[in-house]
Design a protein that fits this description.
Blueprint: H1 3-10, H2 13-21, H3 24-48, H4 52-57, H5 73-79, H6 82-115, H7 121-130, H8 136-150, H9 156-179, H10 184-192, H11 197-208, H12 210-225, H13 229-234, H14 242-252, H15 257-277, H16 279-287
Length: 292
């Protein structure tokens, strides 16, 4: 038996299968899967660029044979709809602070749980982990009553607080585990150079935690941007995000597709842009710790 044959004999079945299927065929298959995954987005984009009459008469794929159907009139009408434009601004005012607050507070707490000594640290961390299993639905009514008493119900600030509170347990859990993997020698060397805890956190820990922070930011951004349940409960007409505004438009105007299609596309494409912009950091954060 030759050396090559002996190496192949020692390979596992999984390794041989991967070796057989790897190459151009897998790339083509992944491209096809990616196109199917993007098909709803492509269809929604094309639908948003067609007139209501064309959308009612035929499917969006007909535009490939009749490109003259493409028009931006629906987006002009969308920009003239005050409810939709205000809701887009409200969505940004809710999502950006809720994401930044979770990242900043979660990073501070994660660093404290990973590298600072204080009484009951492990028990406090176990309590934070326990909060991960608390469903959002359980807290809707009690917190709504509390916000009503202190005057936060129906405000953007109240929605931001709710999203921040329920996003923090996962943020602390994720960042604490990531920060704990930083070599102790690196932190001790920084302390010997005179770095205090604040400088150590901002100059050493935060730059090294970039992949995990990017992953957390993407998760939190997508969750808050696409949320509808919390927005339905805690917002009013003046503070509702785009998810609630689109649902209201659909309920009030059953044939208002020339507003719904471009509004739904804008609501969908912004999270996609955020994800693809930070996908490399997202993959690095997800894979962190998997390979030593």
């Amino acid at each position: 038996m030759t050396t090559v044959d002996s190496v192949k004999a020692r390979q596992s079945l999984g390794s041989r299968v991967v070796e057989k299927v790897s190459g151009g065929a897998v790339s083509v298959f992944l491209i096809v899967v990616g196109l199917f995954w993007l098909m709803p987005t492509i269809g929604l984009l094309i639908s948003s660029l067609r007139s209501p009459q064309d959308m009612t008469a035929s499917g969006w794929w007909e535009v490939f044979t009749k490109p003259s159907q493409l028009t931006i009139d629906s987006y002009d009408k969308l920009l003239q709809n005050g409810d939709i434009t205000d809701s887009i601004l409200n969505t940004v005012l809710i999502t950006v602070p809720a994401t930044l607050l979770v990242i900043v507070i979660g990073a501070l707490a994660g660093y404290a749980f990973a590298w600072m000594e204080f009484p009951g640290r492990d028990w406090w961390f176990m309590g934070v982990v326990g909060l991960l299993v608390v469903p959002v639905q359980v807290a809707l009514i009690p917190i709504a009553e509390l916000f009503g008493k202190i005057g936060l119900f129906g405000s953007i600030f109240g929605v931001v607080l709710f999203h921040t509170g329920f996003g923090l347990p996962f943020a602390v859990f994720l960042l604490r585990n990531f920060f704990a993997e930083i070599p102790r020698e690196l932190l001790e060397a920084a302390r010997l150079d005179g770095a205090g805890e604040l400088r150590l956190f901002t100059r050493v820990v935060m730059p090294l935690g970039g992949p995990a922070i990017a992953s957390l930011g993407i998760f939190q951004f997508l969750w808050v941007w696409n949320d509808m349940l919390i927005a339905l409960v805690f917002t009013n007409v003046g503070s509702q995000p785009i998810t609630v505004a689109l649902q209201t438009q659909m309920r009030a105007f059953a044939d208002n597709v020339d507003v719904l299609a471009p509004g739904a596309f804008i609501s969908m494409v912004i999270p996609l842009i955020v994800f693809f912009a930070f996908q490399r950091q997202f993959v690095s954060g997800v894979m962190a710790g998997a390979v030593k």
